[in-house]
Amino acid sequence: MHLLKYLAARNLIVVGGLGALIIGESALAATREEVSAAPAISGDPLYTAQSLRDPMKSLLPQHEEMLRPARDDDGKNAKKLAKTPMPVLELQGVLWGGPKPSAIINSEVYGVGEAVKGVIIKSVDRTGVKVEFQGQVLTLTPKGG
User: Are 78 and 71 in contact (CB under 8 A)?
Assistant: First the structure.
């Protein structure tokens, strides 16, 4: 015990909870220099999320890109694409009074800009829903309305 007190008094020993570490004076001097040379951290960290990807944004191609007709090398329509019939969409209701107008179509809620079976919702108002399918804008109205 006397030896530990002697070494601790001369900065040659560091006593911890479960043991002791004996170090020399030169190692202590180097440690003191490293601590004093370390940069001081001040203020808030420099974290900004502006360069990060929005985790809620889909990585899949947008619906408008998928509906664009094929083109040949000249930039003209390659062939008259076979018109597919518009899918059956049942407009069951509209929610148009708030900041995000929505439509209930086929028992699902959709907002402006979203697509239902390849049909893009362009606008929602009290009279119905304007949709775009293969370049044509159509209006859906609720049944009985």
Answer: yes
- Is the Cβ–Cβ distance between 105 and 91 less than 8 Å? yes
At CA 34, angle to CA 31 and CA 37, rounded to 5? 150
Dist CA 119 CA 133 (whole Å): 5
How many structural domains compose the chain?
Answer: 2
Query: Would you say 100 and 111 are in contact if contact means Cβ atoms under 8 Å apart?
Result: yes
The answer to whether residues 140 and 88 touch, using CB atoms and an 8 Å cutoff, is no
Structural domain of residue 90, as residue ranges? 85-145
Tokens coding 65: 């890109």
And the tokens for 83? 């018109």
pLDDT digits (tens, 9 = 90+) for 86-117: 899 999 999 988 889 999 999 999 999 999 99
Residues 103 and 93: beta-carbon distance below 8 Å = yes
pTM more than 0.70: no
